[in-house]
Design a protein that fits this description.
The structure is a homodimer. By secondary structure, chain A is mainly alpha-helical. Chain A has a single domain (13-112), classed as Winged helix-like DNA-binding domain superfamily/Winged helix DNA-binding domain (Arc Repressor Mutant, subunit A), CATH 1.10.10. Chain A contains six helices and two strands; from the N terminus they run ααααββαα. A two-stranded antiparallel ribbon of chain A has the order 1-2. The longest helix of chain A has 19 residues, at 94-112. The first copy, chain A, starts with 9 loop residues before the first helix and ends with a helix. Chains A and B meet through helix 1, helix 2, helix 3 and helix 6 of A and helix 1, helix 2, helix 3 and helix 6 of B. Chain A binds a DNA duplex through residues 1, 3-4, 25-27, 41-43, 46, 53-59, 78-82.
DNA sequence: TTAATCACTAACCTTTAGGTAACTACTATC
DNA sequence: GATAGTAGTTACCTAAAGGTTAGTGATTAA
């Protein structure tokens, strides 16, 4: 019997794996979209991302900060506020997010239109 | 106290949510990459995607088929073979996959180079 | 005085994703 | 006859993700 020799595609798979490790999950991209659209405060972000809970948002913000995609600033007046902002590094994701958005529209049309 | 008025970004968030529902998870994009690189058989795909188990591959292939991203063909000779292939619809993901790959490379450089 | 806002955290629970090992039925090779 | 490959499935289990509820301590608006 023939042995199957798989085509090697690790040059594509390894970087994609790296990217997915950082941005996969239900929420990270959505939070990033909200912040780049100008939402800075915890509750603003929470309101703008449908169905997210405070606990999950809190955790995801920490993850995003760790991966250098957002910044957390404490604004020290009365009362103390906290503001989140997108880092320059997160802007390297903009094309990816746009593709995701376009594809979502396309896929929905495909599924509904059949 | 000021009420926070979140910027509305649902026009971006909703399509991205749709896209993520279909392609998020650890494996789907990687399997799609393997198939578009020419791997057709179950075991070829399994060998080309690091660490995936037969059970997970089997389930993910079914999901991808349901979402019209791959096709499953039964080749009826001795012995019966099964071949998976990418659909035209899955090709609409190619730019997205490329972006993911590029970003993975960029992000790795950023993390290591700091 | 009461209630609400802000930015969370803790304790607890459920759901989903994913992993392990064994097994099937057929074919092919040593 | 033994072993290995093919394309999975089944049962069982763990880990990770995510959800629910409540609460904190400060401020402020009605």
């Amino acid at each position: 019997m023939k042995k199957s020799n798989p085509t090697d595609c690790s040059s594509a798979i390894i970087p994609v794996r790296d990217a997915l490790d950082v941005i996969s999950g239900k929420w990270k991209i959505l939070i990033l979209i909200s912040i780049t659209h100008g939402n800075k405060r915890f509750t603003e972000i929470q309101k703008s991302v449908p169905k997210i809970t405070a606990k999950v948002l809190s955790k995801e913000l920490k993850d995003l900060e760790e991966h250098l995609l957002i910044e957390r600033k404490i604004i020290d007046d009365y009362p103390v506020r906290i503001e989140y902002s997108a880092t320059p590094h997160s802007q390297t994701l903009s094309k990816l997010v746009k593709e995701l958005q376009d594809w979502g529209v396309k896929h929905r049309a495909k599924i509904i239109g059949k």
